[in-house]
């Protein structure tokens, strides 16, 4: 499943209405690497197996660290890292917290086994300096495009479907690291590819979204939850559609960061319409949307992603009712 999504090339949501903007959280994929120096003898610790020789760096700024995991394949009486004892589970597994700064560092493991044999090994550890700088970025920009299928229905009107190419641009700003992001984005159905309307009707939507994203789970976890809220404006060009629709929106976001820096993102969204509203109707004047997309780093500071989204928008004004349902496959690039 993961390899299939990587082949598809992912970015952020490109649904006709549910246009999600880039989150700066998604760029915090920095790795630390460690290797044996064998500075004491040629034996090293032959019964030690590491789960990986690299790991994601956590934290922000000067407080950066990583966890590396391994397993001893024989019974251990004691184990230290730079002279400090660390616990080893009965099955030999352990997890070490290592500081991961911009400069190259090192640590020494000293292990005593059940036969009172003493084993020493020195390891060097480095962090990718360009990638660390990437995670410090305050601003992030995104460009994208997507293929959308749109179904339009209207009371006492002609229902029809169309396909369109949507373009999008966005900007996000990290206000408080790992706590609060602000973002602004715009989208437009720039090109209608086909329409099955017997009258030749077409819809081209233009939308602007602003949101603030609060991080509910800190950066030490690969699983992240953001709660976003903001304001939107949406209008359409053509013989039918919605004109000057606006209101508040709320969106929970769920992100999982993989060990290789890739991430998978899921969001839900609810937006209420205040335009010409004569009463509160959470069902008749609103947009509901959801989407999932997969993101991966490209080069030093950029990312690509591909996503699938669905959106349903309804509006009732003076007993006139209309609805749009849209599905979209998107590709994008953020930097």
Protein described:
Helix content is 4%, strand content 60%. The relative contact order is 0.21. The longest helix has 7 residues. The N terminus is likely disordered. The protein is mainly beta and 335 residues long. Strand 11 and strand 12 form a beta hairpin. The chain folds into 2 domains: 231 residues, OPCA outer membrane adhesin/invasin (Lipocalin); 97 residues, Sandwich (Immunoglobulin-like). It is built from 2 helices and 20 strands. Strands 11-12-13-14-15-16-17-18-19-20 form a 10-stranded antiparallel barrel. A 6-stranded antiparallel beta sheet has the order 3-1-10-9-6-7.
| Elements, N to C (H/E) | HEEEEEEEEEEHEEEEEEEEEE
Overall structural class, as computed from helix and strand content, comes to mainly beta
Multimer state: single chain
| Gross CATH architecture of the largest domain | Beta Barrel
Number of helices: 2
Kindly report the CATH topology of the largest domain.
Lipocalin
Structural Rg: 26 Å
Low-pLDDT sequence parts: 1-22
Average pLDDT across residues?
A: 79
The share of residues in extended strands comes to over 45%
CATH H-tier superfamily of the largest domain: OPCA outer membrane adhesin/invasin
Our measurement of the CA-to-CA distance between the termini, rounded to an integer number of angstroms, reads 26 Å
Question: Can I get a quick summary?
Answer:
The chain has 335 residues and is mainly beta. It is 4% helix and 60% strand.
